[in-house]
């Protein structure tokens, strides 16, 4: 399995929460663990994002940051993943005095510790700017990434409430990232429509987080194809935020008919109570996906990943070796 759209703060395990709450001398909430998952009847992306308050409060020290990324790496490896790109917003972890640079360095250290001895699995990091943050704070995120200059950081993202500001507002910010040779991803076309996606492409995005509200008009399709854009679908999350009404509404067929590459991802393993196996299971049950279909989407993830050509070749070899196992797990997991 491969996950390119996976938020660290939305993917702490129940065990992580209990360990960190005890460590920080905080009481376990009365409504635990329901308080760390999106509630039934969630009405918006904004309500969904409230689930991140508790995990972020526990991710304010270097030790805790190293712990949560190591834990996630161990769980992904145990689930049989072969690759993941894990994203987080360093600016959300500075409430107890850490600088953004210190936050990033702590997560990098934990990532590298977690990967030791993990055969046939690798992971990299993506740093998120936030739509609701001050411009200078977002620029500080990118500046810290440039200064650290570590190959395990592979892109800059823009996350947060999509309706807060249009994608084009961030043109100067992401020009700074692009001028400093950073890959760019933008959350777009989730809570907002096609204009948000087009704006994201205009400011340099190579991948679109979600993007399910793409309009299949000729001009939009041409812009997507001319810029070789990949889309990061997170179906369960989209249902929970009411971006889509049901799995039948996930535009898999429309994207494939127009030869626009889609990847399948979890978004937030704990908040959305999912993982990539569950995402594929739901799509398999909805669209009767074949093994070839599943291979197609996983291979899209390899092509979309921000790794070298040599590493993509190795990843494709692993996928070819394990596609039968992946397919069996998806088929059997719904029984």
Describe this structure in words.
It contains 14 helices and eight strands. The protein is of the alpha/beta class. It has one domain: Metal-dependent hydrolases (TIM Barrel), CATH 3.20.20. The strands form two sheets. The protein has a four-stranded parallel beta sheet, with helices on both faces. Strands 5-6-7-8 form a four-stranded parallel beta sheet. Strand 6, helix 9 and strand 7 form a beta-alpha-beta unit. The longest helix has 24 residues, at 309-332. It is globular, with a radius of gyration of 19 Å.
Short account of what is shown:
It contains 14 helices and eight strands. The chain is an alpha/beta fold. The chain has a single domain, classed as Metal-dependent hydrolases (TIM Barrel), CATH 3.20.20.140.
Helix content: 40-55%
Radius of gyration: 19 Å
Number of contiguous helices: 14
Tell me the domain tally. Answer: 1
Shape: globular
Provide the β-strand percentage band: 5-15%
CATH H-tier superfamily: Metal-dependent hydrolases
Sheet with most strands: 4 strands, parallel
**Mean pLDDT over the residues:** 92
**N-to-C span:** 19 Å
Q: At the first level of CATH, what is the class? A: Alpha Beta
Low-confidence stretches: none
User: What is the H/E order?
Assistant: EHHHHEHEHEHEHEHEHHEHHH
**Helix and strand composition category:** alpha/beta
- Can you tell me the CATH architecture? Alpha-Beta Barrel
